[in-house]
Amino acid sequence: MSKAKDSVTETVKTIVYALLIAGLFRSLLFQPFFIPSSSMKSTLLVGDFLFVNKMSYGYSKYSCPFEFMCPFSGRILDSAPERGDVVVFEHPTQHRAFVKRLVGLPGDKIQMKDGVLFINGEESVQTPDGVFSETFEPQGAAGNTPRCANQAVGLGGECVKERYTETFPDGHAHTILNIGNTRVDNTAVFTVPEAQYFFMGDNRDNSADSRIAQPMGVGFVPEEYLLGRVDRVMFSAAGKSLLFFWTWRLNRFYEDIV
Prior knowledge:
The chain has one domain (2-256): Umud Fragment, subunit A (Ribbon), CATH 2.10.109.10. It is built from one helix and 16 strands. It has one helix at residues 2-28; strands at residues 30-34, 48-53, 86-90, 97-104, 109-113, 116-119, 122-123, 125-135, 158-167, 173-178, 190-191, 196-200, 221-222, 226-229, 232-236, 255-256. Strands 13-12-4-3-14 form a five-stranded antiparallel beta sheet, with no helix packed on it. Strands 1-2-15-16 form a four-stranded antiparallel beta sheet. Strand 9 (158-167) and strand 10 (173-178) form a beta hairpin. The longest helix is centred in the first third of the chain and has 27 residues, at 2-28. It is globular. The protein starts with a helix and ends with a strand. Its EC number is 3.4.21.89. It comes from Pacificibacter marinus. It catalyses: Cleavage of hydrophobic, N-terminal signal or leader sequences from secreted and periplasmic proteins.
């Protein structure tokens, strides 16, 4: 009987230790994140599954699942992000995670002119790169339908957007999408404050980002709200659930994020 009790005790200990290690792993190293919206198409699709690398930029109280686990202000083991990084951060007022591309560093001047991004007065050149095509249908758990440049698309129809390769003045290149003219295609000059950052979605006309002030948009994001960088898609499913194996996008498994 004693041996049986010892066996049960050891099993319970093993489970507890495993949970503690998993919690520590999630808290300090990597955090899973699902893409719920279309703001980063075509770089990230609704239903992509990522791991956020928390070691990229160091740690703040927002990097922990519970703030009491990181009882300090500012950041420790701090490392500065680079323009062009795809970053997961906590929204400063909505207190939920967002994923966007880092466009503006502290001190930068950011402006949109006729849908073209200017950084410190220099144009980020957009080179036509065909179209991004997808089926007009409900996507992900929320079941939202995509926005299309060819309006009045019926369910099951082809939804297209213009695609461009955007190259920052420093040479970083990535793809962006264009749907049409919006109010944030032309903006005033944003001067990024010290220790804050400016983010935009790659699906430019379908992204609430730093071009729009909080609480409706993102505004400037203080550095302590950065959770980490994402470097690749680990898994992807087009359906409402990961269990719907027939909706898996096998071509996106372990795909690099540029």
